[in-house]
Amino acid sequence: MRAHSGALVFGLAALLLVGLAVGLFVRERQAFELGERSALSAQARSYAGTVTSLAGELVVQAAGDGAAAVRGRDGRFVHPAEPEPLLHLTLAPLTDTEGRFFLDQAASLERDPATQAEARESYRAAGSSRNTLVCQLIALHRHAALERRAGDEVQARRLTEDLVGLLTPETCTTSEALLARVLLHRADAEREGSGDPDLAHDLVKHLGLDADPAVLGLLSQLGPAAQPVLAARRTQLARITRLRDLVPPADVTRGAVVLGAHLVAWAPDEDGGLRFAEAPLPSAPAGTFTDRADRASATHDGLVEMVTLGSLLPGQVCVASLPRTELAQRRTRHLGLIGGGLILLLVLGLAAVMTTWRAVRRERAVAEERAAFVQRVGHDLRTPLAVMRLYAETLVEGRARNEEEARSFAQTIVDEAGALSDLAQSALDLERLDAGSVGTTRVELGALVRGLFETHRPLFAEGQLTITTLGVPVLVRADDAALRGAIGNLIANGRVHGGGLVEVRLESKAGLARVRVLDRGPGLPVERAVLFERFTRGPDTTARGAGLGLALASEVARAAGGRLEGLDREGGGCEMRLELPREMNA
Hints:
Elements: H1 2-63, E1 69-71, E2 77-79, H2 97-109, H3 116-126, H4 133-150, H5 153-166, H6 175-192, H7 199-204, H8 213-222, H9 227-244, E3 255-259, E4 262-268, E5 274-280, E6 288-289, H10 292-298, E7 303-308, E8 317-322, H11 324-396, H12 403-435, E9 441-444, H13 445-456, E10 465-468, E11 475-478, H14 480-497, E12 502-509, E13 512-519, H15 549-559, E14 563-568, E15 574-583
Helix pairs in contact: 1-11, 2-3, 3-4, 4-5, 4-6, 6-8, 11-12, 12-15, 13-14, 14-15
């Protein structure tokens, strides 16, 4: 019945622990998702604050003198300037037949040195103001080249200056005029190491969003000097491309918007146009987005938290998202740790329940053992008391047949009284050991063994008890009286069960003090597992005793941090070996 009750209590405790673990696991799962959402919300708010602060700075910059771009009322960009279309005119218009005639005639005459004077006249006629600008430019350029080949550098320079005079901002919208300027630039650079420093800037004004190949070809003729200007213009074109389709809401006079990886702010100017300022978006934490394309792909699955970017960025939100795969990985790691902790808690709880159950069983076993101990001691007490009473009554009533028999009765009473005293002392010592009330002091083991030798020697015949000790003190820490009784029991057992020949040796080795009690008796029994249990006696022994001597000696050794073991002795007999930790001499 008690076993069934214990099993029921154990089962109920286990079910309670399992229920508690499951409840905690479910609650922790919910808390995990709430915590992740809270973290995402804080992340989105933090980044939204950073973007909103930058938007405010850019709005102030756009309203002031720091605008990066200005768009006029007509929608065209004033700064940076939108590309001007490059006009492509024919080399010699068909309507200018006179100019074309003189150019062809001069080209054929200049091949022969004898007719070069006539070629000069033809070039002058082609460059007349009555001809088209194209014919004038070509005539001046070819005439200057002819004079340079003839060695007249002064005349060539004058003709070149006349050509440059015709290249006004209006004439630079033609490809032919730009070509002429490039040719002059190269000629001047080759001759004097100089050139037209503004030519690249004039060219890039005509560079369109589709990278006009005519302009790129002319720029390539300028060499490395045009590359910085070209790079700057491409940056301007990229800004124009980014801002061209930006149409701010009509009811928002100033604000900002996220365009790709840039934040663009606008403010009105005094002419009815818009002024823009822009900057790259601040670096965002992983999973945080502000533009709709990235937001749509990132928030398709998993956890999502959104916050608005404020009045300066109307209709825009900041999103912090955690994809489903990463969410599952984090949840697995988190709940794995929680689950492991709960399993450990469950195991510890079950171990505590089992430990308690074992403690209850052990307490019950101790109680049963004490009851049996009292019963055995009571039995061992009744027998010698009965013998003592019988012999005492015989002596009192004078029924002894003679004086020798009376002395025999008296000796029996003395022997039984000694046995009772030994039994009582052993029982008291065991009770003290069980209660843990045994104290410890420093004991000199050599002196204790020699004292026991003197005590037990009268009980042995001459030469049947020998002792071997060391010449130096051997100190151990134990209860002096209990240790004296334990070794005395070993010597007494050797006298009673070991054929009367007992040898006691005191040794010290590897930090251990060792007392060896050797005899030449029948040896140890086969069942050695119960040798040191209480009330255990050898199977073939006829000597009287309660079976407490070896149990008491073993308990004393254990209380002092040592051990007692029984060994077979070579040549017959047995050895009881008591080992205790040795202390260093003071």
